[in-house]
Amino acid sequence: MNPLRTRAPGKVNLCLFLGPTRPDGRHELVSVVESVSLADDVSLGDAEPGAEGDEVVCPGVEGVNLAALALASFREAVGWDAPPRRVTVAKRVPVAAGMGGGSADAAATLRLAAHAVGAEDETVLATLAAGLGSDVPAALEPGVCVVTGAGERVRRLGALEPHALLILPSGQRLATPAVFAEADRLGLPSCARALAVLHGDVEASFAREAAISAELVRNDLQAAALSLCPEIDGALDAARAAGADHALVSGSGPTVAGIYLGADAHERAAVAAGDLRAAFPGACAVVPVDPAFGAVETVEVPA
Ligand code: C5P
Predict the structure, then answer these.
(1) Which residues in 47-179 belong to E strands, given as ranges?
(2) Phi and psi for 25 in degrees, rounded to 5?
(3) pTM of the entire predicted model
(4) Between 122-132 and 101-117, two packed helices, what is the crossing angle to 10 degrees?
(5) Which tens digits make up the pLDDT trace of 170-196?
(6) 28 C-alpha vs ligand 1 centroid, how far in Å?
(7) In the annotation, is 11 catalytic?
(8) Cα-to-chain-centroid distance, residue 2
């Protein structure tokens, strides 16, 4: 096959409100998830001759790769029995950092496989994505969305008010289950009724007014991430001191995002990233991206 490639953008949770634990062990939540321009590159091509099965090559990431599970689940769901394929991931999104990089790679793999077989049935992809992990459904199509349930219900939004983000990666890694467990230990989740009220507020501000309002830029997992990784506090302070209008932990952390509002947002975030790079290696300024950012392209191979 001609190799296919796409981009797998990382995400920032502009807000994340935590609710009760469901019978499946995961928490109800309400979150606004935004894809950003810091992205992995993911490609799908033929495996090496003699390969016995599909392969995922992802330098820097150990263990079972969610992209491999995505390809296996896609093959099974649509009965795709083509010869072994290779997924190659060039990582740029920090790993185990709350930016959903592994989930974005899995979602990108689903897009690539669906394109390869011409089977881009959104319902099938959404079902597969939900089975792979809470962050995968939102990552199927880059953009901004309100996410509910445990992550499986996704409502796409139009672009929000002009803004850009400063990303401050951490040298530490946090395991998502540990952060949710710590949130429970600290009593952070709201009751179902309070979560429903917050959902209404999110719909009114982010969805109807496209506004990033100060009261709603809150991540209920932040205190849990801070409890497990106190260094995060320094990054939050640094982002605020560098002029961010809001600063918060993304997802389960430990990455910190500074949100800059206004027409000059990207310029201000870029200056801050430059100033902070010595203290926070990998600091960068990013912008929101839309579905076109995740388009699948055919890689031209010289004859
Ligand atoms: O869905 P995913 O595999 O990414 O979730 C990993 C773990 O994170 C879950 O097993 C659970 O401990 C926690 N989690 C949660 N509630 C969510 C999402 C994740 O408790 N909505």
Answers:
(1) 55-57, 85-90, 144-148, 153-157, 163-168
(2) 90, -10
(3) 0.96
(4) 150
(5) 999 999 999 999 999 999 999 999 999
(6) 10
(7) yes
(8) 28
